[in-house]
Design a protein that fits this description.
By secondary structure, this protein is of the alpha/beta class. It is 48% helix and 11% strand. It has helices spanning 7-11, 17-26, 36-39, 48-60, 84-100, 114-127, 144-156, 176-184, 189-200, 205-215, 220-227, 268-277, 291-294, 302-329, and strands at residues 31-34, 64-69, 105-108, 130-135, 161-165, 249-254, 283-288. A five-stranded parallel sheet has the order 1-2-3-4-5. A two-stranded parallel ribbon has the order 6-7. It is globular, with a radius of gyration of 20 Å. Mean pLDDT is 96; it is low at 326-330.
């Protein structure tokens, strides 16, 4: 479970980091993904005592760290971007802290250049940390930029560089929470339905944006809704097995869970079976991002949303293991 899931409650002071970890343990989600820049006030300067406090706190609840989310502040200075050497040093700094915390998976932002990561591989191998480039919408598993990272890992023959899929790339249906928010902002129901239908048919997003903005005379909310399609890809779940050797961790993005513990938008019912079929043994980390779509109308309950997702995971994994288990054991 990613601590990012509880950003609403933490921002409002309703939950502490330890509250998040305690809740995760209570639902059996014992793997914790941490965002040091958000969760550790003295980052990047953590004393050995602080590192031990973090490790002890997580262990106290029967949990363990699964992933570390790094950021690369290339625009830290107003007069210039970070140099290549500075980028490498920043990544090495994160790899060291990752190692000190006992974490073996580091989420790398998608814009980090493959050659920069290639330079960091010797240090990642020394620290025994897998650098996984986040495959985040609108990128997807077979995007040329993502393939460049895979090619770099192959070139270096390393197991410490690869990818880290974000499940937002498997958005099969348009999220109802998105539509409802845009309608509250003034989108006409018939235009909203047109956008949803276009997404369902997987029409190229630029065509839909043009139809809404120009032909339909869309208002601000309608155009904004159409533009979300740029970040709503539906990658082919059947291809995920081909990339299993390159990732150890997954960010299980979701925007809302129904009361029956099903996801109305992201195709987990197709992805989970493919992971089980492929024999993948990594970690799925809940990443709830629905707060921003509902906070204007009612209280955000991230805990209930995350709980429902884990009920779904348990069901889908059990079903997939029943279907593919005998084959995997053979």
């Amino acid at each position: 479970m990613s601590l990012y899931s509880f950003q609403e409650e933490m921002f409002l002071g309703r939950m502490t980091v330890e509250d998040c970890v305690s809740f995760a343990a209570s639902i059996g989600a014992k793997g914790i993904e941490v965002l040091p820049e958000q969760n550790m006030p003295t980052f990047p300067n953590l004393t050995d005592a602080q590192v031990e406090e973090w490790k002890e706190m997580v262990a106290r609840h029967g949990c363990h760290f699964t992933a570390y989310d790094m950021f690369l502040d290339t625009k830290r200075r107003k007069d210039r971007l970070m140099s290549d050497d500075e980028q490498v040093e920043s990544i090495k700094r994160d790899l060291l802290l990752c190692n000190r915390l006992g974490i073996r998976n580091m989420r790398v932002l998608v814009f980090v250049r493959p050659d920069i990561l290639g330079r960091c591989v010797p240090y990642a191998e020394e620290m025994d940390v897998h650098m996984g480039v986040e495959v985040h919408a609108p990128w997807h598993l077979e995007h040329a930029w993502i393939l460049r990272t895979i090619e770099e890992a192959d070139r270096l023959n390393t197991k410490h560089l690869g990818i880290l899929p974000d499940m937002g790339i498997f958005m099969k249906h348009y999220p109802p929470a998105f539509r409802a928010r845009f309608e509250r902002q003034g989108a006409r129901p018939e235009v909203a339905q047109f956008i949803v239908d276009q997404h369902e048919a997987k029409i190229m997003c630029e065509y839909t944006i043009y139809e809404v903005a120009v032909k339909m005379g869309g208002n601000k909310a309608e155009i904004a809704m159409a533009e979300t399609l740029r970040h709503a890809p539906y990658a082919n779940p059947k291809r995920i097995g081909d990339y299993v050797p390159y990732f150890r961790h997954i960010q299980a993005k979701f925007y809302e869970m129904n009361e029956d513990c099903t996801d109305p938008a992201i195709a987990y019912d197709e992805v989970i079976p493919e992971l089980v079929k492929a024999g993948w043994e990594g970690t799925l980390s809940s990443e709830y991002e629905g707060n921003r779509w509902i906070q204007d109308v009612h209280e955000v309950d991230s805990r209930e949303q995350v709980r429902r997702q884990h009920v779904m995971f348990e069901r889908l994994i059990a079903d997939a293991e029943t279907k593919f288990g005998a084959k995997e054991q053979a």
